[in-house]
Amino acid sequence: MNFTQNDKIEQIKDETLVVGVDIGKENNYARALDNRGRELKKHIKFANTREGFRAFDKWVSEVSLANDKTDVIIMNPENKTDKTVKIS
Predict the structure, then answer these.
(1) 59 DSSP 8-state letter
(2) Is residue 72 classed as helix, strand or coil in its secondary structure?
(3) Which of 18, 37, 47, 73 places its Cα 20 to 30 Å from the Cα of 66?
(4) How far is it, in rounded angstroms, from Cα 1 to Cα 72?
(5) How crowded is the C-beta side of 3, counted as CA atoms within 13 Å?
């Protein structure tokens, strides 16, 4: 999905978990933040494999539940195409 800057800002509410992901060739790193940019959990390193993404999915679910977040936005801040995925 392509969103304008204002569209992106409007999506982030108190109940939103924002996950930034840095994709690498072998390993990826993710960080979970709240709507004000505060870190909710230390970053996770996960392999760029099917099992790694399963671990990432589990991590996102655990962070969401632990922090009462019902919406999740996953983004790659370094991505030149500026794509954002919203998962509710």
Answers:
(1) H
(2) strand
(3) 47
(4) 15
(5) 15
The model carries a pTM of 0.80
Q: What average pLDDT does range 11-37 have in this prediction?
A: 93
The C-alpha torsion from 61 through 38 and 31 to 77, rounded to 10°, is 120
Q: Which domains does the chain have, with CATH numbers?
A: 5-87 (3.30.420)
Are the C-beta atoms of residues 10 and 35 closer than 8 Å to each other?
Answer: no
**Nearest partner of 22 among 64, 65, 77, 73, judged by Cα:** 77
Q: Does residue 4 surpass a pLDDT of 60?
A: yes
| Average pLDDT of span 52-74 | 95
